[in-house]
Amino acid sequence: VDVEGFVFSILATASAVLDKRQKDIGVAVINIGAATTSVVAYESGDVLFATVLPVGADHITQDLAIGLRTSLEVAEQVKLEVACQDPEKISKRDEIDLSRYAQTEKPRTMVSTKHVAEIINARVEELFDLVDKELRSIDRSAALPAGVVLTGGGAKMAGLVEIAKTQLRLPALIGKPLLSDSHI
After folding, report:
1. Secondary structure string (H, E, C) spanning 62-106
2. Residue 54: which pLDDT band, with cuts at 50, 70 and 90?
3. 38 has which bridge partners?
4. Distance CA 85, CA 115 (A)
5. Residues above pLDDT 70, as percent of the chain
6. Residue 184 pLDDT greater than 90, yes or no
7. Closest by Cα among 180, 181, 177, 141 to 13
8. Which long-range contacts (CB under 8 A, 24 or more apart) does 172-179 make?
9. How many Å apart are CA 135 and CA 130, to the nearest integer?
10. Are strands 27-32 and 110-112 parallel, antiparallel or unpaired?
11. Mind listing the pLDDT tens digit for each residue in 55-111?
């Protein structure tokens, strides 16, 4: 196999999910991976900025595992189920039985859904604060007309788009691959 070249993965991601208009008017792609989050911002069709942040979706899972005193496997499943709910809208009485996620017989272990949401949201808000800090460094905080496009496995968490809109003060959506080559 002969390698012809390398491409920074966030640029490849952006190429797959952004159209020319978005790149022209100003947009950022935020790819939330397991261990890291990559960000690229475009304006006038050109890359303004690209970076990799040392926080990813696995950090949320680890926070949950520690906070709930459970395994990473159970924490991952809880993260996907509870996701980014607004803790203020969750009753203090709502609970999750962690034993239903365990592969082995375990006694019922009830945890507050509100507590789970608080753990998840704290890390997600930290992530978007880091992204906003990077956008401020290029004078684009709350100033990208096409907003942000979220990609990666971590972007699958329900409610993430709403937190992105609030934290970044920008339109936000989940990126989907474009079907034609005309966007490149």
Report:
1. HHHHHHHCCCHHHHHHHHHHHCCCCHHHCCCCCEEEHHHCCCCCC
2. very high
3. 31, 52
4. 11
5. 97
6. no
7. 177
8. 172/147, 172/148, 173/147, 173/148, 173/149, 174/149, 174/150, 175/13, 175/16, 175/17, 175/18, 175/29, 175/149, 175/150, 175/151, 176/17, 177/16, 177/17, 178/16, 178/17, 178/18, 178/19
9. 9
10. unpaired
11. 999 999 999 999 999 999 999 999 988 888 888 888 989 999 998 888 776 788 899
Cβ-count burial of 183 within 10 angstroms (0-12 exposed, 13-18 middle, 19+ buried)? middle
Helix, strand, coil shares, percent, the chain, to 5: 45, 20, 35
Chain centroid, CA 31 distance in Å: 7
